[in-house]
Amino acid sequence: MTERIRDLTGIVVAGGKSSRMGRDKAFLDWQGRPLIQAVVESLAGHVSEIIVVAKEKEKFKFQFERETLLVADRFPYFSPLVGIATGLFYSRTELNFVLACDMPQVKMRVVKRLCESMEDFDAVLPRSSYGLEPLCAVYRKSALGVFEARIRRGSLSVRDALEDLRIKVVPWDEESREEPLVFMNLNTPAEYGEGLKND
């Protein structure tokens, strides 16, 4: 079992529209429980605290672990950048692992490797076979000011905001069958079916 990474907050972002899925991804069934609950449980016990960022808190009727804080987006926009910034605002630690609620197969060894690569960078992101992974990355809390400034200007692209940070990209060049599954986003019914088949 992977040991707890001290002074690291896990931020699960769940404020998207789920337009390609046709229904809210956070509540898809995953191993007999809501997908977002499975994602939260994958982090529980490994980080100092977990923050779930949602557009509408009242939609979450089930109970998370006691170490989980449920918060609402601080800005009225549908953008992952808003979710990341909101999580960083509420975080009490300098280092924060941000994970999308539709990535249930990310392993803690991924988180550990990103943290070990942090050095003095503002953010460390993996580059998988899908491309850069800003919603499976480690950010310093100090990135909050940059992100909020972008949001207030109406610039809601995470990739554009990263241009204002010192970032490190970690190539995930593991030539194995597992790598594409680890970083798979469940954006469409087909991807959801593929994820279930390979879980």
Radius of gyration: 16 Å
Strand content: 15-25%
Count of DSSP helices? Answer: 7
Mean pLDDT: 84
* Overall number of strands: 10
Helix/strand/pairing category: alpha/beta
Helix content: 25-40%
Structure write-up:
With 199 residues, the protein is of the alpha/beta class. It has a single domain (8-198), classed as Spore Coat Polysaccharide Biosynthesis Protein SpsA, Chain A, CATH 3.90.550. Helices cover 29% and strands 23% of the residues. The protein has 7 helices and 10 strands. Strands 1, 4, 5, 6, 7, 8, 9 and 10 form an 8-stranded mixed β-sheet that branches. A hairpin with a 2-residue loop joins strand 7 (123-128) and strand 8 (131-132). It starts with 7 loop residues before the first strand and ends with a helix. The model has no long low-confidence stretch (mean pLDDT 84).
Provide keyphrases for this structure.
199 residues, Spore Coat Polysaccharide Biosynthesis Protein SpsA, Chain A, alpha/beta, 23% strand, two-stranded antiparallel sheet
SSE diagram, text form:
Elements: E1 8-14, E2 29-30, E3 33-34, H1 35-43, E4 49-54, E5 68-72, H2 80-90, E6 95-100, H3 108-116, E7 123-128, E8 131-132, E9 136-140, H4 144-152, H5 158-162, E10 167-171, H6 178-182, H7 189-198
Parallel strand pairs: 1-4, 1-6, 4-5, 7-10
Antiparallel strand pairs: 2-3, 6-9, 7-8, 7-9
